[in-house]
Write a structure and sequence with these properties.
Shape: elongated
Largest sheet: 4 strands, antiparallel
Oligomer: single chain
Number of helices: 11
Distance between the termini: 22 Å
């Protein structure tokens, strides 16, 4: 029962919110472009409950919560393959997704990921205005003996003003840059006694154990902040919007950087998590309070947008890739080419899902538990 309340329920709430926002983007732009929407589904598989609206759209909740779809008039199935089994009348073509102009179809497809990004920006901005943002000056409060910081010559009361040339205003930014990196060398710009110094430093890969007993290798500098100067600052609407855009960009660039590092082999692919680890993190966030949980929803919304923009058939990015090719060659790809593309995309998505779930089982020590 504790697992249900503490982990499964927050996980289901989180998935429902980010999937609903994503599909609502597709739905809204489709309706604005005169497309008839047949089904709006959060989840796949057997329908748990649903209703029909005045426009004939079936709004429903599916049994399997890992995703959702908007089925439009002219689609053969939930993957948005065009229906080639019959001829469409002129009246039907007017409301069919696949008979819209290229720009309209691209806008409808892109609206899903973009709505996730806009949702995250709005959520973060509201949090910054109502809950506030923790602001800790980037001043070194302590240096751990034998750490990378000590070896680099960093001293207490040094103010870190930049990392690799990027300005640093809060200590939290230092943590973001270091922990989201792959442990490669950095250049810290510090202020000491009125002078500016550039100090090269290579973070130390350190094994940290969380409160659930899971061990993770994390790059660390070995410094801590001077918490006496920390404060929670309520931001004005303008500052909140600016900071939410900045945080969204930081999360986006860090995520893409991590994916690139995994592809090149400079980062361990064990960091790639699937549904089990998301459930674990959502439970932890929920236990940390409403603000933590809402922040995690925003972060996952950004990640869902990025994943869907990958140029893999079956995902929104794959459809946009096909449309880009169509724009170049002045005609849609052949049905056979699209069919092979969807098959490859389905294989890649399933393979990624299985691999991430396998990582989760290892990370959460499920096999050790079963052996015991």
């Amino acid at each position: 029962m504790d697992v249900l309340i503490n982990y499964i329920l927050p996980f289901l709430v989180l998935l429902t919110v980010v999937v609903f926002v994503h599909e609502l983007g597709h739905y809204w732009v489709a309706r604005r472009n005169g497309v008839r929407v047949l089904v709006f589904s959060v989840g796949f598989g057997k329908e748990l409950f649903g209703f029909n609206d005045k426009n004939g759209t079936r709004w429903k909740l599916g049994l399997i919560p890992f995703g959702g779809y908007v089925k439009m008039f002219g689609d053969e199935d939930e993957s948005s393959k065009p229906d080639t089994t019959r001829e469409f009348t002129d009246e039907e073509k007017a409301v069919s997704f696949h008979h819209k102009r290229l720009g309209q179809r691209a806008a409808i497809v892109a609206a899903g990921p973009l709505s996730n990004l806009f949702f995250a920006i709005i959520v973060l901005a509201v949090l910054f205005m109502t809950v506030g943002q923790l602001a800790t000056p980037p001043v070194v409060g302590a240096v751990s003996p034998g750490s990378a910081a000590e070896k680099a010559g960093i001293l207490e009361q040094d103010r870190i003003t930049a990392i690799n040339g990027a300005a640093i205003e809060r200590f939290e930014q230092i943590q973001q840059v270091v922990r989201l990196g792959d442990g490669s060398g950095l250049v810290l710009t510090i202020e000491r006694a009125g002078q500016s110094l550039d100090l090269p430093i290579t973070p130390t890969m350190t094994e940290l154990t969380d409160r659930f007993g899971n061990v993770q290798r994390t790059p660390l500098l070995g410094i801590s902040a001077s918490m006496a100067e920390s404060q929670v600052v309520m931001l004005s609407p303008g500052a909140a919007v600016y900071e939410s855009f900045r945080q969204t960009w930081v999360i986006t660039s860090s995520t893409l950087s991590a994916v690139g590092q995994m592809i090149t082999g400079s980062r361990d692919t064990s960091d790639l998590g699937g549904p089990l680890r998301i459930a674990k993190f959502s439970g932890e966030a929920a236990q940390g309070g409403a603000a933590n949980f809402i922040t995690f929803i925003a972060v996952l919304s950004i990640n869902l947008a990025l994943i869907n923009l990958f140029p893999i058939p079956m995902l929104d990015g794959g459809h946009l890739l096909f449309y880009a090719i169509e724009g170049v060659i002045r005609r849609p790809l052949s049905d056979r080419a699209q069919e092979y593309g969807f098959r490859i995309g389905l294989f890649l998505v399933l393979a990624l899902f299985v691999f991430a779930t396998w990582n989760d089982l290892i990370h959460l020590k499920v096999f050790d538990f079963l052996k015991g």
